[in-house]
Amino acid sequence: MSPNEEPLIHVIDDDAAFRRSTVFLLESMGWQVAAHASAEDFLSAVAVPTQAACLVLDIRMPMMSGLELQQVLHQRGFEAPIVFITGHGDVELAVQAMKHGACDFLKKPFKDQALIDAVGRAVKLGCEARARSARCEEARLILERLSPREREVARLVALGLPNKLVGRELDISEKTVHVHRHHVMEKTGVGSAAELARLMLRADPAGLD
User: Fold this and answer.
1) How many angstroms separate the CA atoms of 116 and 156, rounded?
2) Which sign does the torsion angle of CA 96, 34, 45, 61 carry?
3) Residues 4-15: tens digit of each pLDDT
4) CB 101 within 8 A of CB 84
5) Which residue pairs from 67-76 have beta carbons closer than 8 angstroms and sit at least 24 positions apart in sequence?
6) pLDDT of residue 2
7) What is the pTM of this model?
8) Alpha-helix residue ranges (DSSP H) falling in 90-206
9) Which of 35, 44, 167, 200 is most buried, judging by how many CB atoms fall within 10 Å of its CB?
10) Can you give the pLDDT at residue 209?
11) How far apart are CA 60 and CA 143, in angstroms?
């Protein structure tokens, strides 16, 4: 799925009138919108969302609450930005939601522009996160071309070690290191140790620790 794909906004609220007005407002801004009457309906319809998305989510609903849905989505590896909708007395719950990764919350009643602005920020965050994820996946696929020994050499080269020290670390000859290093550069398409380091950090920010 392309990180530039048009985002789909999911509105999840048990208040039918609120769902209708919110869908109308967001669609009037040119966004694609899907409405769900409950967290269970959303999970049944979407399961593991793949399209770039954000959620407009009521924090209090019968059966599964918005906070519980947030936790389920975390467990499934779905990290779309969430704009929580709260009622009177729900601010503490909203703060808890923010601590678990929600990007915003709005307290009813709120102005249309406040929702438009919050969703705009969430959509931008979601698209940026998908772009980062795509770059990370691309880097991982490139590094998968390397053999286990080449990966060992690549890591040490990316850390700035000269061939002689790489050979000493891996107990192989400097000439063998040179051959492996050449293969690493060829397979990954990079031209320097610095470029190799950047590639490895894109694939795994902790990969050079």
Assistant:
1) 48
2) positive
3) 467 789 999 999
4) no
5) 67/93, 67/96, 67/97, 67/100, 68/39, 69/12, 69/39, 69/42, 69/43, 70/97, 70/100, 70/101, 70/102, 71/100, 72/39, 72/43, 74/100, 74/101, 76/48
6) 46
7) 0.72
8) 91-99, 112-143, 148-158, 163-170, 174-188, 193-203
9) 200
10) 72
11) 45
The residue behind tokens 């999970």 is: 43
Successive 10-residue mean pLDDT values, the chain, 209 residues: 67 93 94 93 74 83 88 83 81 71 84 94 86 89 95 94 94 95 95 93 83
pLDDT tens by residue, 156-203? 999 999 999 999 999 999 999 999 999 999 999 999 999 999 999 999
3-state secondary structure of 17: helix
The answer to whether the CB of 143 falls within 8 A of the CB of 203 is yes
Which residue, chain included where needed, has tokens 């389920």? 72
Tokens of 10: 């999911």
**CA distance to 19, 24, 26, 28, 56, per residue, from 31 (Å):** 15, 10, 6, 7, 13
Location of structure tokens 């989510």: 57
